[in-house]
Amino acid sequence: MTYSLNLEKRGVALRGLTVDLQGKRILDDVDLEIEPGEIVALLGPSGCGKTTMLRAIAGLQPPLRGDISVGGKIMTKVPPYQRNVGMVFQNYALFPHMTVADNVTFGLRMKNVAAARRDAVQTASLAMLELTALRDAYPARLSGGQQQRVAIARTIATEPSVLLLDEPLSALDKKLREGMRIELRALLKKVGITAIIVTHDQEEALAIADRIAVMDRGRIAQIGTGAELYHKPNSRFVADFIGYMNYFEGTVGIQTGGLLDITIAPNLSIRAPSAQTIREGERVSVGVRPEAIRLAPQKQASVPGINAVPAQLVSKEFLGVVTYLRFEDDSGIERMVIRSGEDHDLAVSDGARCWLQWPEQASIVIAA
Predict the structure, then answer these.
(1) 60-72 pLDDT, tens per residue?
(2) Torsional sign, CA 200, 202, 208, 211
């Protein structure tokens, strides 16, 4: 009879999680709710608390206060080996003297699982991760992607409720890492387990996760889908961490038809969708994504319409799929425009003066 892994999906909840290390606050009153079977990425710069949160969930880092629950059961004081949480480490931590099959069953042997069940779990785990043909190979013979699959297979062989992955692709070179992003998401969805991934790579988080929690100095700055964070960031920190952004500083004027008029320079204003918390006279930042900007030749001094800023092309940076056009506006501030494929805007020559234009809905108002 074929053995089926018992990978029951469990949700994870953090309530007021606070962690201090050597007198320094690493996690500060964090609340987080993760649905069963959901893939959530913890994204942020080094030192923001991502890995500490992962270690706290695994039971490797005791919190100062707060609660951690898995499947509705409080785990805060439960020892790591009783939490039924699996962890895939950054360097995979495979045993070089063991075959793939032996690596996969290592955790089961440590738990004194009976040989018959151990062999059945091993077979099921190898099949699920498409490693059956490599069962007798040693880690040194495997590619980076294969080693990652072995690390995941070893972890799911213990049938955890939650899978934790700490920088799972950082050990791979750039090209392989890009290819493995989609494969890793497909693997996690195939396994069907709740997964929490730590990464500092925005593209990795966008490609793999159902939702992303952007972290800043021990707190979650914003959580949402990749599209929500990209198009509706709640702060400059989040906007800057998810892609490139051009900022225009100005003062809010009148509101008409659901749009704000924002003065950014004498005789120069732009429009943006209204925000309930923004009031007339308030200083704000207006963010515009580089790919939303279109170019028009600056043949006359008058402004051609709303949301048009004069600037001069300083340089082009060709990167294959995309080209970065760097402009400098009349205030000396750099503006980025991104083009892809054979866009006609790429014909603009260095030194040319243009109007940078974008639709009103592409303006993202961020309070100062």
Answers:
(1) 999 999 999 999 9
(2) positive
Q: Which two tokens stand for residue 298?
A: 């600056």
Chain position carrying tokens 């790429």:
346
Is the Cβ–Cβ distance between 107 and 87 less than 8 Å?
Answer: no
Q: How far apart are CA 258 and CA 275, in angstroms?
A: 9
Report the C-alpha gap between 128 and 131 in whole angstroms. 8
Alpha helices by DSSP H, the chain: 50-58, 100-110, 115-128, 144-156, 174-191, 202-208, 226-231, 236-241
Q: How many CB atoms lie within 10 A of CB 263?
A: 13
Q: How far from 63 is each of 18, 89, 197, 218, 345, CA to CA, in Å?
A: 6, 21, 20, 13, 53
| Tens-place pLDDT, residues 225-253 | 999 999 999 999 999 889 899 999 999 99
Separation in Å, CA 11 to CA 55, 82, 85: 17, 17, 12
Confidence of residue 1 (pLDDT cuts 50, 70, 90): very low
Distance (Å, whole) CA 197 – CA 289: 26
Other C-beta atoms lying within 10 Å of the C-beta of residue 358: 21
Judge contact between 248 and 288, C-beta under 8 A. yes
Expressed in angstroms, the distance from the first to the final Cα of the chain is: 63
**pLDDT tens-digit map of 132-171:** 999 999 999 998 778 888 988 888 888 888 999 998 877 6
Contact yes or no for 282/367 (Cβ under 8 A): yes
DSSP 232: S
Task: Tell if the pTM clears 0.85, that is, is over it.
Answer: yes
In three-state secondary structure terms, 126 is helix
Helix (H, G, I), strand (E, B) or coil at 311: strand
Return the structure tokens found at 274. Answer: 């209204």
The pLDDT of 344-357, averaged and rounded, is 82
Secondary structure (DSSP) of 47-93: TSSHHHHHHHHHTSS--SEEEEEETTEE-TTS-GGGS-EEEE-TT--
